[in-house]
Automatic annotation (TrEMBL), chains A, B:
Spermidine binds at residues 62, 86, 155-158. One of its GO terms (molecular function) is spermidine synthase activity. Keywords: Polyamine biosynthesis, Spermidine biosynthesis, Transferase. PANTHER family: SPERMIDINE SYNTHASE, SPERMIDINE/SPERMINE SYNTHASE. Belongs to the spermidine/spermine synthase family. This is Polyamine aminopropyltransferase.
Length: 284, 284
């Protein structure tokens, strides 16, 4: 027999991966979690059937969500990570000895438990002494925080199901308040290519733009995500990722990365005209 | 019933598009040609089952294969286009009033005939008076040319079947000879992500690098191609696409483009570390 995992990128587009072996399946309090092994992507897991992390290309997402803000402000010390149950974002953050504290708030403990078992590649730094895990709703957690973090990373699922609250104006407003006066907010920002994703991207952008003086969007090639064209949001109270990046400082750290480099940093903010148009028209 | 077109991106990865209506199918002297209509991508056509052009995203490929060299050297007058039976590359070239002559060499006349019928969006400028069509093998055509073209664009299929000769050292060597002393060669350069494509990319890069003093690779997000992460090669005898681009001159032309802009031009040459490594190790 053959076993294929299929994700519907739209009603009319499917992406399928041949599965060698299903490794895990369960329903948590919040969502269905499945883990598979495949030849092409290694282990991968899905939440409610949607692709989250593959061993083959998780480095792209995690490089881009972490190193872009860290190269922009190397003085970041206190970080809040929301979502990110696989641990990949925390793994990249812990490579900076200058970071003192990482609060990670994941609503679904079962995701973390599953990733500890099946994704040691991403979950390997969740026990770093600087990391504090909270199994709570990120939306509620951030509400009580004020002037606390240098960086907030929203590493959420898509805005359907448990991730929905992390795309609201209330949430971004609370992030603003929880950030110090030179704080940076980075979020996974969906994709511009298929209409449903593009709408989510526009909504998120409109809301963030109303709150933060600096509001930019950058892109990466993530082939296991719908369309492979994925976006991230960079918002801040002062720092600009293009004028404030300190190439030399970041390169002198000697971090080995498989995707990110300081040229990519500068290049990834250059967006295609059709994406720029979608962003300008967001919420009109 | 449901009808789905499926392309195997690897033995273990499939990309499928729901087909509203098959529009055409035939076997030419060289390859099988199929045209379909779909909700998500509009009309699209395949050669030997591999995706070539979709109405939804052909603008990305054609913008990037044409405007990058044209913005680097606005004095380009004589152009040779190899392959490109759909006409999209010629369409973009004809937007430059400064171009005087375009030789287009497509081995398979049936591709052009089919595209004239089903893809007026791309084939619309094939009758421009500056365009001369040759239905010949590009490999043979270019052999007899010397010091003739300012720009050669190799808009070929993948290096399996009829496109194979367009990835050989002999072919690139003949392109070098056919170019004037400040000539530019741009070619579709496959993808770095799945192994078989990455090998083709490495082979092409190694061969071009041995011939041209300037040899760079740039990338674009083309969701209908395998992995969505697609590369182009830029090789030349003198021009460097980053130091020689004249933003102001290009922007003053007032060309409306849906993907390309001069910021993308500068950003698209910044490649991920894993791609840089594949290129450095090409042919070792």
């Amino acid at each position: 027999m053959e076993l294929w995992y299929t994700e519907q990128h739209t009603d009319n587009v499917r992406f399928s991966i041949k599965v060698d072996k299903p490794l895990y399946t369960d329903q948590s309090e919040f969502q269905r979690i499945d883990v598979f092994h495949s030849k092409e992507f290694g282990n991968f897991f899905t939440l409610d059937g949607l692709m989250m992390v593959t061993e083959k290309d998780e480095f792209i997402y995690h490089d881009m969500i972490v190193h872009v803000p860290m190269a922009t402000n190397p003085k970041i010390k206190n970080v809040l990570v929301i979502g990110a149950g696989d641990g990949g974002t925390v793994r990249e953050l812990t490579r900076y000895s200058t970071i003192e504290k990482i609060d990670m708030v994941e609503i679904d403990k079962m995701v973390v438990d599953v990733c500890r078992e099946y994704f040691p590649q991403t979950a390997c730094k969740l026990d770093d002494p600087r990391v504090q895990l909270y199994f709570e709703d990120g939306l509620k957690f951030v509400r009580s925080k004020e002037n606390t973090y240098d960086l907030i990373i929203v590493d959420s699922t898509d805005p359907f199901g448990p991730g929905e609250g992390l795309f609201t104006k209330e949430f971004y407003g609370n992030c603003y308040k929880a950030l110090k006066e030179d704080g940076i907010l980075v979020n996974q920002h969906e994709s511009p290519y298929y209409q449903e994703y593009a709408k989510s991207m526009q909504r998120a952008h409109k809301r963030i733009r109303e709150l933060f003086p600096v509001c930019r969007v950058y892109q990466a090639h993530i082939p296991s995500y719908p369309s492979g064209h994925w976006l991230f949001g960079f918002a801040s109270k002062t720092y600009d990722p293009l004028s404030d990046i300190d190439d030399k400082a970041w390169n002198s750290l000697g971090l080995k990365t498989k995707y990110y480099n300081t040229e990519i940093h500068k290049g990834c903010f250059a967006l295609p005209n059709y994406v720029l148009e979608l962003l300008v028209n967001a919420g009109e």
